[in-house]
Design brief:
about 120 residues, 5-stranded antiparallel beta sheet, 5 strands, about 20% strand
């Protein structure tokens, strides 16, 4: 829900990136989202897209956040186009919680591409 924003501690690494306390290579940015390279890329294209407003993960989004969720997905597609990965195809992943392997408890979409990606994921 929208008030879940308070669940993200201010010292969360992506919260600090969103506030520009830590500089990153900006791949895409607008008033609502920021995209930057993953520090440990798993594919030739591996970009993270985060909302500037903090949420723990997609499970914390509510109906009032529908526009933000849409902006996150549109930004992921724009990242794929900007990095030349759209033609070959991309995978957009949102890990949420322990079973999904989420390691950073701040909503982020992985944009993966630039090579064939196996399915199903591990
Ligand atoms: P998760 O496993 O939570 O879905 O993904 C977290 C991602 O964040 C991982 O792919 C990890 O490599 C990336 N990551 C962790 N710390 C940093 C950081 O400080 N900077 C950047 N750019 N990526 C990070």
């Amino acid at each position: 829900m929208s008030d879940a924003a308070s669940d993200v501690p201010p010292d969360n690494i992506f919260a600090r990136i969103a506030r520009k306390e830590i500089s990153v290579q900006v791949i895409y940015e607008d008033d609502h989202v920021l995209a930057f390279p993953d520090i440990s890329p798993q594919a030739p294209v591996h970009i993270l897209v985060i909302p500037k407003r903090p949420f723990k993960n997609i499970l914390d989004l509510g109906p009032a956040d529908a526009e933000l969720a849409g902006k996150l997905l549109l930004a992921a597609a724009e990242v794929a186009r900007r990095l030349g990965a759209a033609e070959g195809g991309v995978r957009v992943v949102l890990n949420a919680g322990g079973d999904a392997g989420q390691t950073v408890p701040y909503l982020h979409a992985h944009v993966l591409g630039g090579r064939p990606l196996a399915w199903p994921p591990g």
